Amino acid sequence: MVPEGGLEPPQANAYRIHNSDGDTHVYQYKGQSIGGDIRKSLENACREAKIPYGRYIQGGFIFHDLRHTFTTIARRAGVPRNVVMTITGHTANDMNFRYDTVDENDLLKAVDQIEAYLESVDQKVDQVELEN
């Protein structure tokens, strides 16, 4: 995956797919570069998989959904926010938050983490009578 803003050489070559004929397209299928628009290839793949495709189709999948999915999975995997933002090309936290989906499982995990923290903290409080 190449960050949206691209990479400066020599790092760019580390993220490219190289096949035997020297083709360095980022998106390839069976060793061949995908010709034309990647969105058309995604549309064809969705049709073959019987997944609704299109912005104006109810529940339709679009290429941009991959950005939301990546950002959410990266956060859940513990990737630092600044690294996720570099990969996705975001420079502002508000854009990162827009793409990061928090669901019920995330909330339940947060409660579990807080409970585990509280259990690990010494919560003994000595009661002392104050003298008047």
Give a topology summary:
Blueprint (H helix, E strand, L loop, with lengths): L10 H5 L12 E2 L2 E2 L4 H12 L15 H12 L4 H8 L4 H7 L4 H17 L12
Antiparallel strand pairs: 1-2
Task: Describe the protein in words.
- This protein has 132 residues and is mostly helical.
- The protein has a domain at 64-116.
- It has six helices and two strands.
- A two-stranded antiparallel sheet has the order 1-2.
- Helix 3 (65-76) packs antiparallel against helix 4.
- The relative contact order is 0.08.
Pick out the low-confidence regions. Answer: 1-19
For the CA atoms, what is the radius of gyration?
23 Å
How many angstroms does the end-to-end distance come to?
Answer: 69 Å
The proportion of residues in beta strands is under 5%
| Anisotropy-based shape | elongated
Number of helices: 6
Arrangement of strands in the largest sheet: 1-2
- Structural class assignment: mainly alpha
Task: Offer a few descriptive terms.
2 strands, mainly alpha, two-stranded antiparallel ribbon, 132 residues, disordered N terminus
Summarize this, please?
Helices cover 46% and strands 3% of the residues. The chain is mainly alpha-helical. It has a domain at 64-116.
